[in-house]
Amino acid sequence: MQHKPYGPYERFIKRPLDCFLAVCACMIFLPVFGILAVLVRIKLGSPVLFKQNRPGKDEKIFRLYKFRTMTDKRDRKGNLLPDEMRLTKFGRILRSTSLDELPELINIIRGDMAVVGPRPLLVKYLPYYTEEQRHRHDVRPGLTGYAQAHGRNTISWDDRFVMDVEYVSHITFLTDLKIILDTAKAVFRREGISSSDSSTMESFIDYCESIGRIPKRAE
């Protein structure tokens, strides 16, 4: 079923406003971009930007841009070490302050993303979503979102998706404004950066396997 905008804000205002805000933010943070690029190059190496395919609106794949936060350290066999072993102190600072996500402003200007929306996850997760959870892709993914502002990586996958779908069903200006303000508070307090038992959140695939969920395309 095709997504129907909840109201005039989502239909006519949200996209132009997102683009305007992203352009303004890029101009304001241009010196920060330059400084971070130099620091990432010195401390973590190149490339400075982390690029990865993510599913966007209607599950259309786009290239996400972020500042890299991990090294390329490998074991003796040439395999990348686990994330927690490659995530440096500098990388943790970038994540906790959300500075690593500044390049996503480019994605917003390009039309891949919105300022507020469900966070773009990994392409490999697509076959594991329930029909209800797939509705998170009815709109553009966001630089921040309802789940991002209320727990980030510390909440369960089920709770995260409930929040995502609830947001998609009722997009309003006041909701977006509240999410932005709540996100700013969470970043300032450095809340919810990691899950309780991992430097990065538990893989959704690992979670699905733990509850016996079979990917759709494998059924």
Explain this structure.
By secondary structure, this protein is mainly alpha-helical. It contains 9 helices and 4 strands. The chain has one domain (8-218). 44% of the residues lie in helices and 9% in strands. The longest helix has 21 residues, at 8-28.
Count of distinct strands: 4
Task: Tell me the radius of gyration.
Answer: 18 Å
| Strand percentage | 5-15%
Biggest sheet character:
2 strands, antiparallel
pLDDT averaged over residues: 90
- Give helix and strand order, one letter per element, not per position: HHEEHHHEEHHHH
How many helical stretches? 9
Bin the helical content: 40-55%
Unreliable spans are 194-198
Offer a concise description of the structure.
The protein is mainly α and 219 residues long.
Element layout with pairings:
Blueprint: H1 8-28, H2 30-44, E1 49-55, E2 61-67, H3 83-86, H4 89-96, H5 104-110, E3 114-116, E4 142-144, H6 146-149, H7 157-169, H8 173-189, H9 204-210
Parallel strand pairs: 3-4
Antiparallel strand pairs: 1-2
